[in-house]
Design goal:
The protein is of the alpha/beta class. It folds into three domains: 76 residues, Beta Barrel (OB fold (Dihydrolipoamide Acetyltransferase, E2P)), CATH 2.40.50; 159 residues, P-loop containing nucleotide triphosphate hydrolases (Rossmann fold); 58 residues, Ribonucleotide Reductase Protein R1, domain 1. Helix content is 33%, strand content 20%. It has eleven helices and 13 strands. The strands form three sheets. The protein has a six-stranded mixed β-sheet with strand order 10-9-8-11-13-12, with helices on both faces. It has a five-stranded antiparallel β-sheet with strand order 3-2-1-4-5, with no helix packed on it. It has a two-stranded antiparallel sheet with strand order 6-7. Helix 4 links the parallel strand 9 and strand 10. Helix 3 crosses helix 7. The radius of gyration is 23 Å and the shape is globular. The N and C termini lie far apart (89 Å).
């Protein structure tokens, strides 16, 4: 295998090569396969490498799937990402926690049972759209459900031209079913809550024998069996990034991704009679009319509104959040004063 082919098989492309200046052509590109507190694990054309994090470099700055350059002893820089999956970091503020980088296809994994949740799936879809990654919904546990096609219909309606595939994660034919997305040089990532079969699916696609866990009968949620993000070689020549199960996904700076998922809603916005329509009780509201005509599901409209509001709040700077809270406080005081005045008159 030539050096060029070895790099291409890891996902290297002209997108990354074009970022190198003449002096950097002598450096070694490394694809990050694991991020730790003080080091990264990676893959180069020569094989596996481990590099320390030095100076101002921190683990939070890098993601599994990133391409970095090294002189053999240290990381000189991280190349620009083709795609970037991230969510709002825990705690306050609008910081982003990186999930994975340079992912071509996001396999959003759910199951044909109580885990199926349209609101959660829409969050994953908005994440993929914002990142520029192709989403595919995988519906597992079809062997335990007589309503797999119903689940597929519901999933496919969450976004235009969305592919939703029911499957049995233990089926040896899964690799063939998903082969179009798992070719040599391609990178896929698995995202979903615990207990939906991500580890089983990883085993089927890679030939590994990772441990799987049971699910709780009361809510179909499972126990975490993947605790860190890992990258594995696929039987078809591509790469798979597995992630720990997510019970919650908080978006940040994902307005464009939300609009892409909810095109059926956003296309109606410009059709309202009033430009500042709040889509509540105003006459001539195209969105309320679509709900009344049965063309738009009101539950979906409410989920869109919730995501938009949440994203706006999460994207605020601390100063903007303080100002919003001050405005709210003033509004509450004004309302209480008006109420007290009316009560006094009574």
């Amino acid at each position: 295998m030539t050096n060029e082919h070895a790099l291409a098989s890891l996902g290297w492309s002209n997108f990354f090569h074009s970022q190198l200046d003449e002096a950097e052509l002598a450096l070694t590109p490394v694809r990050i396969s694991g991020v730790h507190r003080a080091r990264i694990d990676g893959l180069s054309k020569a094989g596996a490498v481990t590099l320390p994090l030095t100076g101002a470099q921190t683990a939070s700055d890098l993601a599994i799937g990133d391409w970095v350059l090294t002189d053999g002893e240290r990381i000189t820089r991280c190349l620009d990402r083709k795609t970037e999956l991230g969510r709002r970091a825990a705690g306050t503020g609008n910081g982003k926690q990186l999930i994975a980088a340079n992912v071509d296809t996001l396999f959003i994994v759910t199951s044909c049972n109580a885990d199926f949740n349209p609101a959660r799936l829409e969050r994953y879809l908005a994440l993929a759209a914002e990142a520029g990654t192709e989403p595919v919904i995988l519906l597992t546990k079809v062997d335990t459900s007589a309503e797999a096609e119903t689940y597929r219909d519901q999933a496919s309606r969450l976004q235009r031209n969305l592919i939703a595939l029911p499957l049995d994660a233990r089926d040896p034919g899964v690799a063939g079913l998903l082969g179009d997305w798992c070719r040599e040089g391609q990178t896929v990532a698995l995202l979903g809550s615990s207990g939906v079969g991500k580890t089983t699916l990883t085993n089927s696609l890679t030939g590994l024998d990772g441990t799987t866990g049971s699910i709780r009968e009361n809510d179909a949620h499972g126990r975490h069996t993947t605790t860190i993000r890992t990258m594995h070689a696929l039987a078809g020549g591509g790469w798979l990034i597995d992630t720990p199960g997510m019970r919650a996904l908080s978006l940040v700076d994902a307005a464009a991704g939300i609009d892409a998922v909810f095109q059926d809603v956003t296309e109606l916005l410009g059709q309202c009679r009033f430009r500042d329509c709040t889509h509540q009780t105003e006459p001539g509201c195209a969105i309320r009319q679509a709900v009344a005509d049965g063309q738009l599901d009101e539950a979906r409209l409410l989920r869109w509104d919730k995501l938009k509001r949440e994203d706006q709040v999460n994207a605020e700077t601390p100063a903007e959040a303080r100002e919003r809270n001050r405005r709210f406080g003033r509004q509450v005081k004004k309302s209480l004063a008006v109420k007290a005045s009316h009560d006094g008159k009574g």
